[in-house]
Amino acid sequence: MSQPSVPLVRVTRGPLTECFHHGHIAVVDTAGTVLHQAGDPHFVTFARSAAKPLQALPVIESGAADAFGLTGEEIALLCASHNGEELHTSTAAAILGKIGLSELNLRCGAHLPFHRPTASAMRERGEAPTSLHNNCSGKHAGMLALAVRLGAPTEDYLSLEHPAQQRMLEAVSGMSGVPESSIAIGVDGCGVPVFGLPLSALAAAYARLGCPESLAPQRRAACSRVTTAMAAHPEYVAGDDRFDTRLMRVSQGRVLGKMGAEGVFAMSVPERGLGIAVKIEDGAKRALYPAAAEALRQLGLLDADQLSALSSYHRPLQRNWQGTEVGAIVPDFRLV
Amino acid sequence: MSQPSVPLVRVTRGPLTECFHHGHIAVVDTAGTVLHQAGDPHFVTFARSAAKPLQALPVIESGAADAFGLTGEEIALLCASHNGEELHTSTAAAILGKIGLSELNLRCGAHLPFHRPTASAMRERGEAPTSLHNNCSGKHAGMLALAVRLGAPTEDYLSLEHPAQQRMLEAVSGMSGVPESSIAIGVDGCGVPVFGLPLSALAAAYARLGCPESLAPQRRAACSRVTTAMAAHPEYVAGDDRFDTRLMRVSQGRVLGKMGAEGVFAMSVPERGLGIAVKIEDGAKRALYPAAAEALRQLGLLDADQLSALSSYHRPLQRNWQGTEVGAIVPDFRLV
């Protein structure tokens, strides 16, 4: 029987709490045991982009990363929901160049960069966004690299039946412990399959990603390469003014985090053998980072200085059009 | 003892419900009796811009509307969170002209128009937004009209102590039946005081707004003038591609509706003597219109043709960057 969601974050305005954001949190070890929780730790939802670090594994395991000489920055970009800054688009283009393809082969669609200064500058220049600016272009470039390595067609790589997607499904299944047939399949904003599984299983996959000792040698090596790349190049995983990047920087790579659309955040804490998955039930991004940072605080995984460096994500102030402070976003829950 | 929120709206993706939006609904008669509800009908929240039609009352009652010859369109704009289309900015400027002031007197701050085509065109022309484009510029022009009429200063009209704000607080109190001292005060996005009160009281105010027979003659006349203006000029209350405007058009003015930020929608159904207030607890706009339209459906206030004309608000489809349908936003609750 599933458990109800609990309020995780309050949005205040003057004397009132104006909004509540409900959600679920699972804190899990590498065996998949739930150590701490809020709401329903087994809430089933799509991992969305939080699956990307897991989806990078078969790109490495297939030999594609070595065959094409992918760098650490490029592997970090496979795991990214990036900002569309120049470093991101040029790196996506570099991966495509190494596999003999170009942005014309990307099927992710185009959108303006998440990074506002970059988007504004493009608007001012009258420059239209390309598929390289899509926040998922690194993941798509990785899917194409895998397709090329497997000798599979590069046209229909979005399809669940494509060998590249099948390898990614297998990786998510193997890492999470959820049988492939039990993983719910939807379609992502960028057109590829997305994977629905319990939060506790997503957290377990992240625990194993950061602490892969019990996995087969090839997977263990791939996990290590992904986490090393994320820790060393956090600016490629998200970018300027983004929580994922700031968290990995501030924690000096001791906490690896990746957001997913609709209120998902997954974290790996290698030295503690922990995986943590957060779902804001209504999908609100404004509640996601406060909840994730607060979970880390309660678990003793961020010290006061680190929390202070993340304060604009942990407890953001709300301002009005004139810049006056009118309220705050306040995490308010207790992990049990 | 307050009652918990209930899920009002589901967001689906493929086989899963990916997000839930919780909330509260109160359906109330002119006596303030709760006839139907979902969640906690007495949930206390800020009315935000849903208070604007009530805030227009003292502008009329003070004699300002007559003294300055405000038209029906201009009175509708006092009630608006408008799109910043040309008809809105020119009407706000016209009100200011009639009272001998200009946009330089507005203290609402500037933001790009809500209306995307208008905002895009301004960006292309390199045109910066002014206070006239602020969605609240009509309300602010009304506050200034009231200040001028009362012989009060026009500089500090944002302050709760200003006679214009005091008249507005009195109107919200009088219409809702909540004593002034029990109304929570916060600061809005546009700098003015906002009024916190139970949803049931906001709904009662809207019931009385549309059915003002029991009110004092001056207030009755003011209510009638506001509702007549909203029903006759719904495009001034919001604008192109906006639910408020579409609802009033589709219902031919038999349902008057006004949104407020952070998930508030208030409606008046004059011929049934009903007021309805909806609060999405997490503030999400994507859930607000489906919940409001569904409440009207369950109350038998919209027929099949009207619902069909509102289907893109009642049950919107979710598409990805490529335009592929990936899910839907589905109201899923039962008024009791």
From TrEMBL, chains A, B:
<dbReference type="InterPro" id="IPR010349">
    <property type="entry name" value="Asparaginase_II"/>
</dbReference>
<protein>
    <submittedName>
        <fullName>Asparaginase</fullName>
    </submittedName>
</protein>
<dbReference type="Pfam" id="PF06089">
    <property type="entry name" value="Asparaginase_II"/>
</dbReference>
